[in-house]
Amino acid sequence: MPIRPLSVLTALLHVYIALRLLPALASLTPAWPLALVLLAVSAVTMPLPFVSRSHRADRKAKPAGETLHWIGLISMGWFSSLFVLTLVRDLGLLLAWLASALGGLQVPWDRVTPWSALAVLALATGVSLVGFVNARRTAGVKQVDVPIRGLPAALAGFTIAQLSDIHVGPTIRNGYIQRIVDAVNRLGADAIAITGDLVDGSVPELRDHIAPLAGLRARHGTFVVTGNHEYYAGAHAWIDELRRLGLKVLLNEHVVLQTRNVRGAQTDEELFESALVLAGVTDFTAGHFDAAHASDPHLALYDAPPLVHTRVLLAHQPRSAPVAAAAGYQLQLSGHTHGGQFFPWNLFVPMQQPFTAGLHKLHDMWIYVSRGTGYWGPPKRFGAPSEITLVTLVPAQP
Questions:
Q1: What is the strand order of the sheet 275-280 is part of?
Q2: Is 166 in contact with 172 (CB distance < 8 Å)?
Q3: What is the C-alpha to C-alpha distance for residues 214 and 211, in angstroms, rounded to an integer?
Q4: Which tens digit of pLDDT belongs to each residue from 57-107?
Q5: Is the pLDDT of residue 14 over 80?
Q6: Share above pLDDT 70 across residues of the chain, in percent, rounded to a whole number
Q7: Euclidean distance between CA atoms 306 and 309, whole angstroms
Q8: Domain locations in the chain?
Q9: Could you give the CA distance from residue 143 to residue 387 in angstroms, rounded to a whole number?
């Protein structure tokens, strides 16, 4: 949406909130002008993050501009909760009025109206503060065991550290990434998977901030697939940059990871059984940006050794799962949803994606959906904690 109509829309929504809350607050406390100031700041600063990206592309942007950008994103998160809670309050007041008019319920309006307005303001602010802390902390490690039927003994305990949806950009910078890298390296995983939406900006803008990813360490290396935000930011340039950093970008292709020393294998069958096919597809929507990048789980297995039966797919969006299951993968690792990131957006994710977060089964394939390691937009996570996922392959119980 263009910035001008967006600014008008958000301003009108702020006016609605002011009309619904401020009169009630004025009857309760002389400090009500503070709420008016907060609403005014929010209305003015909220559109700032949507101003032309050309301002953000200047890597030497003035600190004042960066501060305003931060304030705008924080305002966006606060306003989101405030608007939803105001609607909930109005619905509650409407139901109370109906109960009073039709059922004779005695409602103490002189207490309910002002205190409910204060509760809305307090809850929105509290949720935003907690959400800010949750978003800015280093993601915790979530351990997930995935039972694979017929898993060879050599692959039992194979670990993949999954990062997803970091969204390096205006508020996620070098230091944030370095903390993630340090946390992942302490896990000592066999492989590292980055399942898309790594960046929110161009290579010149973010090259220095994404540089710590070159320090990721795992026995078999680090593998990346593209997400939709890579295509917004210039996917081809980012693919080149990530490869320059030593990361393996999988574009509808696979690698065979050999877990046993070749010289220690007694037969070819034993050698193949101890291997794992790790495949990666481009984002589900990549074909809209570049027809040559159309996502294809079947193509990602082209020429894969048929005797290597354990196959894992990296796919940014859970929507890739039906085709991946048909292609014969045992596990798909995805992200994209952020687990909803914060209420009420978690309610809308199922409208677009078959899975929101966690481990699920689709036919004979498992799919794990990460809640994401960073965040997008407002620095706010509430009810959907960020995660560094340590996936461990284990034999399925008979």
A1: 253-258, 275-280, 311-314, 331-334, 365-369, 358-362
A2: yes
A3: 6
A4: 444 456 666 788 899 999 999 999 999 999 999 999 999 999 998 888 888
A5: yes
A6: 93
A7: 7
A8: 3-136, 140-395
A9: 10
Q: What pLDDT, in 10s, does the model give residues 234-269?
A: 999 999 999 999 999 999 999 999 986 544 555 666
Q: Which of 359, 365, 305 is nearest to 162 (CA)?
A: 359
Distance CA 381, CA 77 (A): 9
| CA dihedral (151, 155, 157, 160) positive or negative | negative
Contact at 8 Å (CB) between 166 and 134?
Answer: no
**pLDDT confidence of 340, banded at 50, 70, 90?**
very high
Model pLDDT, residue 344: 77
Round to whole Å and give the CA distance between 95 and 346: 25
Q: Tell me, which fold does domain 140-395 have in CATH?
A: Purple Acid Phosphatase; chain A, domain 2 (3.60.21)
CA-CA-CA-CA dihedral for 18, 24, 27, 31, to nearest 10: -40
In terms of phi and psi (left: phi > 0; alpha: psi -120 to 50; beta: otherwise), the region of 66 is alpha
Q: Residue 251 in 3-state DSSP?
A: coil
Q: pTM to 2 decimals?
A: 0.91
Backbone φ, ψ for residue 158 (5° rounding):
-65, 130
